[in-house]
Design brief:
By secondary structure, this protein is α+β, with helices and mostly antiparallel strands. It has a single domain (10-143), classed as Electron Transport, Fmn-binding Protein, Chain A (Pnp Oxidase, Chain A, Roll), CATH 2.30.110.10. It contains 4 helices and 7 strands.
């Protein structure tokens, strides 16, 4: 991977910095919600640069479910395009850092099951889906070698 380019969004940039500089002991929740987040390190699909994004912590066994909600915005977040192009990521969950591979969920039954897990972990996802006409993409991140 090449150089890290911090997010242009200040709170995202600050959260990633706090999370990583503390070794995963601080900055581990979404702003004032108290809800846990993970940091996904991925490769930019256009720049090839390292990108880091805090996402809600949604677990399914040893895998993580990554939800491209962007608060119900009409477009997918940039990281969705990055993962579609470069499925190798690094995921930090507090103090644990793992190399993982992602796949976008296409199967409807799997999607329905994982969507319920995501909504249980972060109930606003249901409202976000109602706000947008796009289908919010789901990815499963699994440990490399699993």
């Amino acid at each position: 991977m090449s150089n890290y380019i911090p997010s242009p969004v200040e709170w995202v940039r600050n959260q990633v910095e706090l999370y990583e500089s503390s070794g995963g002991t601080e900055g581990t929740t979404l702003r004032d919600t108290g809800m846990p987040v993970v940091i996904v390190t991925n490769t930019g699909n256009k720049t090839g640069a390292v990108r880091k994004t805090p996402l809600m912590r949604v677990k399914d066994g040893s895998a993580y479910v990554l939800v491209g909600s962007m608060g119900g915005a009409p477009k997918n977040p940039v990281w969705v395009h990055n993962l579609r192009t470069n499925p190798a990521i690094q995921l930090r969950d507090r103090t644990e850092v793992q190399d993982m591979r992602v796949r976008e969920v296409q199967d409807e039954a799997e999607r329905a099951r994982l969507w319920e897990i995501a909504v249980a972990a972060f109930p606003p996802y249901r409202d976000y889906q109602q706000r947008t006409s796009r289908v919010i993409p789901l990815f499963v991140a699994e440990p490399v070698g699993a």
